[in-house]
Amino acid sequence: MNRIFRKILSLPLLAVLCAGILAVGAAWPVPVSAADADYYAPITATAGEELLGQLHDLITTTHTHYSSYDECRDNAKKTDPALGGEEGIVEFYTHEPIRYYLNDYSTPENRGTWNREHVWPKSLSGGLWGTNGAGADMHHIRPSEVKMNSERGNDKFGEVDGGGEVYSKTTDGKNSRLGGHHAGGVFEPLDNVKGDAARIVLYVYTHYNTYANVHGSTDGNGASYYFGALRFTNIIAASSEEAAAELLLSWNELDPVDEIERTRNEAAFEIQGNRNPFIDHPEYAEAIWGDAKTGGEENLAAFHSAVSELKESGTLKERLAAINGAIRAYQALTGQERSLAAEDVAKLQAAVAAYNEAVRAHNAEAVAAEEAALGAVGGAGS
Fold first, then answer.
1. Domain spans, the chain
2. What pairing do the DSSP bridges indicate for beta strands 164-169 and 114-118?
3. Is the pTM of this model over 0.85?
4. What digits encode the pLDDT tens for the residues 291-322?
């Protein structure tokens, strides 16, 4: 049977089809849960200042429990469990597991333990937070190995040319894992953490700016002194707000949302009542600060047209091309536009399912034909 499997994969058409299945799987968006859809129901804007203001109002009014800094230690068990079922918590910059009991009751000299890291350092907040408000928000605070935390210090985020390697440490002081590079007061996390950092910065900026600064209408349930004036250049090493936003957008795109972020977003939601919208809808970042189109009707019309091209007839290759075209049109929609296109989304999902079933049937026929051919050859030889 291994021989048959190898022969089928060598057939040009089937190789294309197998690649096509992977393409659909990789591009297809994660379905929005009912809870997620309900949470974002108040969002009617599709881009720009109006969307930013609505998100500020949403995440501040639903933020019903402001954690204390002490709570952040115990909350880490829920928000940052180690990967793969390992014991302990996951370190932010390296993703290595650290035993929970090796926590920051210890002094900074005790390497291999962990601190409650302010991803946006207190010293770069303009005095806006210490250990309350944003300084104890579970969407913001991440576990960081003590020496890693000390090496990053209050460096701004940015990109460095070369720079010194920054490692976490084991409890006996040896280098453990690479966590980034720094030079000249700038820290660059690894590529697989850049999106995490960017989406935290976007959340903190959107939440803790006073509503008038972000085109909102309320600061919700927080104490008034939790809110103030924040700029991206407080935390991003860039020459202007526009350049800082551009870096955040590039990191948001470079490193897509992963399971670590989804897990902690759900856990923080249970603890605090609010969510990080840039984890649920990373496209919001581009819609607010980028050059995303604001013409919702044009986007919806393009998606509807692409879905109308989906047909069960035609070759599998033609059907795959039509599906990928519809998926690209879907990905251009904002969150609100997607909610308005539910009927077309259902059609696209059905087309993907039908295509994959057709590919499975085609492959099964090919296997049967190959087995029959090999059997005939074997019978003639006997």
1. 2-28+294-381, 48-289
2. unpaired
3. no
4. 644 455 778 888 889 898 887 667 888 888 88
